[in-house]
Amino acid sequence: MGCQSRNEVWHYDYVPNLDCELVTGRLYEGPWIDKPVHPKDIVGLSYGYAYEGKVWVEHLKNLKRPSGIIHLNHSLEDLKGFIDKSLPKNSSDRIMLRQIGIKFIVTNGQHRACIAKFINYPIKSATVTPIVSGLAEDELMNFIRLKTEEAQSKIFRFL
């Protein structure tokens, strides 16, 4: 039967791609820090153009590895263990994020972060760099709101 996630409104929120859509100039970053991150505060991914223009549920289905990972990890505990593999600081699977206000964009570990978001599993330790200038949280959230409305009108037109 596998893990199941009940349908929630945010599943259809637009997922901005920081590097492809939002950044027109230089982002100025603060120093890297390690901290826990709650998945509800993750609002975007920094990933290749192939994943641009999608909502969260499409990312869960279409990112190359999560669909296979979900099929291989049949229980909630298996998925949590998969996410926790990113905890060592020297791990190539380490979850890394850019912080904009109190929101986060994933720059490494997109698969683990996407699954964490869907199972509402806090990331115990991630490497985070704050964006100190170049993009404000209100700009980011306004962009997401507008693109969500646009994306939902396309999705629900075909249901």
Can you describe this structure?
The protein is α/β, with parallel strands linked by helices and 159 residues long. The protein contains six helices and six strands; from the N terminus they run αβββαααββαβα. It has one domain.
In short:
This protein is an alpha/beta fold and 159 residues long. 37% of the residues lie in helices and 21% in strands. Strands 1, 2, 3, 4, 5 and 6 form a six-stranded mixed beta sheet that branches.
Summary keywords:
globular, 6-stranded mixed β-sheet, 21% strand, 159 residues, 6 helices, alpha/beta, 6 strands
Count of separate DSSP helical elements = 6
User: What percent strand?
Assistant: 15-25%
- C-alpha-based Rg, rounded: 15 Å
Dominant shape: globular
Q: State mean pLDDT (0 to 100 scale).
A: 82
The figure for the number of domains is: 1
Order of helices and strands: HEEEHHHEEHEH
Structural class: alpha/beta
Low-confidence runs of at least 5 consecutive residues: none
- Percent range for helical residues? 25-40%
User: Quick one: how many beta strands?
Assistant: 6
Tell me the distance between the termini.
Answer: 25 Å
Biggest pleated sheet: 6 strands, mixed
Outline the fold blueprint.
Elements: H1 18-22, E1 28-29, E2 33-37, E3 42-45, H2 56-62, H3 66-72, H4 76-84, E4 96-100, E5 103-108, H5 110-119, E6 123-133, H6 137-157
Parallel strand pairs: 3-5, 4-6
Antiparallel strand pairs: 1-6, 2-6, 4-5
Helix pairs in contact: 4-5
